[in-house]
Amino acid sequence: MATSVYTSGSILIKIYMLKDFFMKKMVESQMKGIPEEQKQKVLEMVSKNPEFFNKIAEEVKKEIDNGKDQMSATIEVVSRYKEELKKIL
Questions:
Q1: Coil, strand or helix: which one is 28?
Q2: Would you say residue 12 has pLDDT above 90?
Q3: Residue 57, exposed/middle/buried by CB under 10 A (0-12, 13-18, 19+)?
Q4: What DSSP element (H or E) covers 3?
Q5: pLDDT tens digits along 50-79
Q6: Cβ-Cβ contacts under 8 Å for 30 (sequence gap 6 or more)
Q7: Which residues have a Cβ under 8 Å from the Cβ of 38 and sit 6 or more positions away?
Q8: Helix spans in the chain (H)
Q9: What φ, ψ does residue 7 adopt, rounded to 5°?
């Protein structure tokens, strides 16, 4: 009988990998029609700074929930983080 032993560290790594996978898929779904080279740059930035981009995504969602359209909400939230985004780029 085989048993598997998961440490809290290995579980956290698996959760992080799964979260990273879904974040990449979500970003890719929003970038239809964008050249592959640019997509890869964006995915790399998101992979290196997932917490930051997750924070932006959550704030955009809040703005949308408050009645703004997606484009207006995104522009507003991104403008709040303009300086931090410049550093990442």
A1: helix
A2: no
A3: middle
A4: none
A5: 889 889 989 999 999 999 998 999 999 999
A6: none
A7: 31
A8: 8-29, 36-48, 50-65, 70-80, 82-88
A9: -90, 165
The residue to which tokens 């780029």 are assigned: 89
Cβ(33)–Cβ(26) under 8 Å?
no
CA angle at 27 for the pair 53 and 43, rounded to the nearest 5°: 75
Q: 40 is written with which tokens?
A: 């890869």
The one-letter amino acid at 62? K
- Could you tell me which residues come within 8 angstroms of residue 68 by beta carbon, excluding any fewer than 6 positions away? 76
SS3 category, 30:
coil
**Cα within 13 Å of Cα(20), Cβ side:** 13
Closest CA to 31 of 42, 19, 20, 47: 42
14 pLDDT higher than 80: no
Provide the whole-model pTM. 0.65
